[in-house]
Design a protein that fits this description.
- The protein is of the alpha+beta class.
- It has a single domain (2-138), classed as Aminopeptidase, CATH 3.40.630.
- It has four helices and five strands.
- Strands 1-2-3-4-5 form a five-stranded mixed sheet.
């Protein structure tokens, strides 16, 4: 079952956030800090109540996946006006992967985006996270732009 997250889901969401951090920290230990999470409990409480940034959870016998979304209204002088649903974060518990849960979350988000009139669904994927990149490709995502960096300060 996929549904909006509620405050009772925060512990499960935090566990999934830690799994995402572990993946990212292995790829980019120069950026990510071990044993942290992207959001605090307090931030999650606020986010759960925000209709402009819905969090959807996949519940089996417990919460085993999530999709953090943000609705963006694109209004720029040089861009076509549109409504975009940005997937800020998506995760399926390691123990539940390869059971089509990720595909179901993406399909649910796509249906939701269509229902609210979105023109696009967008997301970012870290370079080096090949499994995620291929998952997104398999689910119909294509590259829009590339974010590049050049390190100018040596790490401490």
């Amino acid at each position: 079952m996929i549904r909006r997250a509620k405050k009772e889901d925060i512990d499960a969401i935090e566990n999934l956030l830690k799994q995402v951090l572990d993946t990212h920290e292995k790829i980019r230990p120069d950026i990510f800090i071990s044993d942290t999470t992207k959001y605090s409990k307090e931030e999650l409480l606020v986010m759960i109540a925000n209709d402009e940034a819905p969090i959807f959870v996949y519940e089996k016998d417990k919460v085993v996946g999530y999709a953090f979304c943000v609705i963006n209204k694109i209004h720029s002088q040089n861009l076509v006006k549109c409504l975009e649903l940005y997937i800020d974060d998506i995760c399926v518990d390691e123990a539940y992967r390869n059971q089509n849960i990720g595909q179901e979350l993406i399909a649910y988000v796509e249906t939701y985006a269509k229902e609210i009139g979105c023109d696009w669904i967008t997301l970012n994927v870290w370079a080096g996270n090949n499994a995620a990149y291929h998952f997104y490709e398999k689910n119909g995502f294509i590259e829009r732009k590339t974010f590049m960096e050049k390190r100018i300060k040596e790490g401490e």
